[in-house]
Amino acid sequence: MANLMLFLLISTSQFLYATSNKTPEPYVVYMGSINNKKDTSHLQMLSTIIPSEEKDRVTLIHSYSNAFKGFSAMLTEEEAAQLSGEDGVVSVFRDQNLQLHTTRSWDFLESEFGFGSQKFQPRFASDVIIGLVDTGIWPESPSFDDTGMSEIPSKWKGVCMEGIDFKKSNCNKKLIGARYYGNQPSSIHLPSNGTSTTPSRGSPRDDVGHGTHTASTAAGTMVLNASYYGLAHGAAKGGSPSSRLAMYKACSIGGCASSAVLKAIDDAVSDGVDIISISIGMSSMFQSDFLSDPIAIGAFHANQKGVLVVCSGGNDGPDPYTVINAAPWILTVAASSIDRTFQSSIVLGNGNVIKGIGINFSNLTHSASYPLVFGGDAAAQDTPASEASNCYPGSLDSRKTAGKIIVCVDSDPSVTRKVKKLVAQDAQTKGLILIDEVEKGVAFDSGSYPFSEVGNKVGVQILKYINSTKNPVATILPTVDVTGYKPAPVVAYFSARGPGGLTEGILKPDVMAPGVSILAASIPSKDIGTVPDGKKPSNFAIKSGTSMACPHVAGAAAFIRSSHRRWSPSIIRSALMTTAKTSNNLGKPLTNSSEGNANLHETGAGEISPVSSVRPGLVFETTTEDYLYFLCYYGYKEQVISAMAGTKFSCPRNSSPELISNINYPSISVSKVDGTKNTVSVTRTVTNVGPGNSTYSVTVEAPSGFIVRVSPEKLVFNKRWMKASYEVSFDVKGAKKGYGFGSLIWSDGAHIVRSVFAVNVL
Q: Is 552 a catalytic site residue?
């Protein structure tokens, strides 16, 4: 019988595999640089591999022809494999579904690092165009008002596409362009008709809120008296409020089709944007190699054209090896907190007041208390106490919970906070107190339902109180916002960590920026339970994620670009990295959500300091040739690299992954050093963008057991744009196993240029 079952299982799986092999699915065919001489018609290529009886499939979903070449189409697995062997094709991969990485923040950067005051607003900020690949935009938001803005720069070649609920008049001198793409996840398996890349229905309008939020964070106009139902009240503004915005709607609530993301990047480069902000990416568990990753491909060619691409590093933290969007030509962003928290106090029957975290607009007050019960003591019949204590769906007995405030824990993270809240509401509870050590620093929005969250230490106090009396009672007060919170910034628990899963020779993420509880524009929500009683839907929302950190860096990059219009993408990235801050508002080293000192795989070079980055002194310029060498060292063939480059390129004879550390990057990462053998050395070249005559001396901050030597120890410059090189050697014979972190600090007395390093001792 067992053998029969095994036979049936194998036969069924073989049938399913054979069937799926022949079922057309959306694929992306990437063909490298537009400079490649070979130019075959995309439709002609399809017609040679698709059977004549299926000629209806000889059609394109998207065609790429501005920054790079290629197309997307419906192919079977066999056809895709056949196409991958065609001359001129670099890679063929399935059209994957990428996920969204979903006021006071700029004020915090201003107060800590001197950013945002009028004297620092660059003269040419209005010439800078930020393109966002996201869920669309809500043009009526006051954050996109164009009052007082000058005429649109002549370099802009983009369009404002009309849709079912979006008119050309929705664009203005602030929101200068808007496009949308048809094969979003809800329709990813449906090819468009003919060769058109424009869907018959759709719109650039945001129906999720994510794109509106990121766009206003990057470059929203200043809006006075902004708030989220009274919370986070103040002036809401973007990082570069005078810059222009262009939205490329490639995403819906279900995610983002990779073919649409590629098309959006291709269009953005052609339209004339200066910076592209992408707060999306694939799961860290399913990372593709660099030539099967649509964001990496698009960003490479954008970089070739002088366009900086800024990406979120992902929300799969706090585990290591979770950072994504980690190609060396991408500016990868981690998320941090700011000095504001949303406090929802819990008042126990013994008089103790506990400062919990959460966003709730309940009508509970000090004057009335309610019975307090632990979830594990209110389990439904035949339900394990462990499930009830976690507020599992169906785990609570409403006869034991109705009218009471329930306390649940988060020992099983598979049940989200939103689900726990819904379970508690369904059990007719008066409110929910959640004990959750991991997520305690990121406020959950429960709408009008009373909710507060605490860490384990405080949670133990609450449970002890419940067990100390026959009739425990409590109340949960409505949220108040508290500013000046310390320490800040702190690495967000969800922020993805390095080392990079594809290569440890490049230190990722690059920098850190505010991404926790960020107030910015959003779509007016009418969802039941999200709008407080008697209130109108808000034009603003408070969101958290590396999605929110990414546009902060895009806005800062626009700020730099407006001051230095000829700086390349890598110079802007270098300026942000080498001037980043490594201490918090207590003057102590940056920490993580576990209250320990943060390492470079969590923070990158540190928290961005936009004003300092305008005058970095020295910069590390990473050229397209450097990136091509990186691809050589990584192991790609010369033919493939030449196709990407659009010209003949030869790799060094002795290319190996160990040489990746020698790429001229602002940070240093050495993936493996044998602690019992010789030292490892890397070289770097810096360019002087400060005063003509200057001399820089180096100071080394190294971990215990490391001997780090720099040669030469002084760099002398006699003119601007002069270059100088140095060598760094790492002797780790006395070091502990694992990664050690430190920095090289170059200074001429006026500038501080910090280049951080991570070295893995075997």
A: no
